[in-house]
Amino acid sequence: MSALLGIFGGTFDPVHNAHLRVALDIAEAGRLEELRLIPCHIPPHKATPSVDARQRMALLRLAVRDEPLFRVDDRELRRDGPSYTADTLRSLRAEFPDRHLCLLIGTDSFHGLPGWSRWRELAEHAHLVVMQRPNHGVEMPGELEQWLQGRQARGWDELHRQAAGLVLFQQVAQLEISATDLRERAARGGSLRYLVPDAVWEHIRTNGLYR
Ligand code: ATP
Asked: Which residue's alpha carbon is at the smallest distance from atom 20 of ligand 1?
């Protein structure tokens, strides 16, 4: 049995309670040694974030400061150009040769995987743990379904035994919160209280972010 390191990448524009709760569900279910939240610098598949990477990172740091299992990792901010997950996993693999890595990914992002740069390479470095997102009706592309054949794990024990290459579908809390909705609320002058950690809302409010 090897220690499992969780990797949760995202735009986190801003980080919200659903990100944090589903990450904790995974950390508990998989008995993860640590879970790293990695904000992207320049997202390859999304519009430029409305708040720069340093501010999104500051929000993340405030969000996780009371959770010892979570750690914010700034490696994508230290790279220029688009933040490709394949490069991120490659650098984590080099830094932690003895750990098993698992990449957390929501169903919406998972179904978009065939559009990612060098996506097949991800499973060379890590396992993928797919989290069901509420009201996500998009079908799995045929290419992905084919790729999944023979890779699906039945439980966490398999991820602890094998270093990388498996896909596990894990039930998580169903929280219908999205960063898009939060940005729209803030732009209308609305409150984000109870949708993000109090310290995150305080920082957004006092710095006039997302107005
Ligand atoms: P946006 O609305 O701007 O697209 P988002 O809320 O989807 O943002 P991201 O930072 O893009 O947040 O998401 C990072 C990861 O978290 C992705 O894998 C995404 O699928 C997952 N995720 C985001 N919200 C949820 C949620 N409510 N439940 C489960 N997974 C989620």
From this structure: 106
